[in-house]
Design goal:
There is one protein chain. Strands 2-3-1-4-5 form a 5-stranded parallel beta sheet, with helices on both faces. The chain is an alpha/beta fold. The protein is 55% helix and 11% strand. It has 7 helices and 5 strands. 32% of the residues are buried. It has helices at residues 2-15, 31-41, 78-94, 111-116, 133-147, 153-189, 203-227; strands at 19-24, 45-48, 99-103, 119-124, 193-197. The chain starts with a helix and ends with a helix.
């Protein structure tokens, strides 16, 4: 295993660091759908999806009994997550992949992860369309309910309450505010952040925009590496 790690590092130095694209947004904003669509469209990329195996414990099956801590950074084994992400980036470099796409509800919480991300896509249900926070929350909440099909009406009611009381507040605290600050920073110093309305636009339209932006970002990064 140690020899394989050394080989990955050697290959990473040979091929360079692949562009790491982070995708963030509230639960049911379309992060996984966008990641899957980009993986289907683009050659030479690696996918690092949100993986429940990095959660410290299993969440209760019923939302009536689920502990809200499962939505917080404390629920994630960050050391293991970061190590795995670094290995995936090195492996992608070894395969000569151009990019690694990472999606996670809490992606921006850990500074080690943030430092690995070269560009960010923020799926924002509020965006700039005059949509209130309450409207945005309800849209994502109902998407989450539909995604969790097959539940009883009572369990769907518990899910709605859980989303309102736990999921959305954690999104605001650990994702939205940081993502918005990065959007402001982009306007000031050119940081790579793309904010998209995940309500009005179809996933294929969103993927079109992200694909164009990713291609441009990768090209700019390649030119800078050549200059160095």
């Amino acid at each position: 295993e140690r020899e394989r790690e050394r080989e990955r590092e050697r290959l990473a130095m040979t091929y360079g660091h692949p562009f790491v694209l982070g995708i963030v947004g509230p639960s049911a904003s379309g992060k996984s759908s966008l990641t899957s669509e980009l993986g289907r469209r683009l050659d030479g990329i690696s996918i690092f999806p949100e993986d429940p195996s990095f959660f410290k414990s299993s969440a209760a099956a019923s939302y009536r009994e689920r502990d809200p801590v499962s939505e917080t950074p404390e629920h994630v084994a960050w050391d293991e997550y970061v190590d795995s992400l670094r290995r995936s980036i090195r492996a992608a470099a070894g395969r000569n992949h151009r990019a690694v796409i990472v999606e996670h509800f809490l992606l921006l919480h850990d500074d080690r992860v943030s430092r690995l991300v070269d560009g960010l896509v923020f799926l924002d249900p509020e965006n700039d369309e005059g949509r209130t926070e309450e409207e945005a929350m309800r849209i994502c909440m109902e998407r989450r309910v539909r995604r969790s099909g097959g539940r009883s009406e009572e369990e769907s009611m518990h899910l709605r309450r859980y989303y309102r009381d736990a999921v959305w507040p954690c999104y605001k605290r650990y994702c939205r505010d940081e993502a918005r600050s990065r959007c402001v920073a982009q306007e000031c110093n050119g940081r790579r952040v793309l904010k998209l309305d995940c309500v009005e636009k179809h996933i294929h339209v969103i993927a079109d925009e992200v694909e164009r932006c990713l291609q441009r970002w990768m090209h700019e990064t390649s030119l800078r590496q050549q200059d160095c």
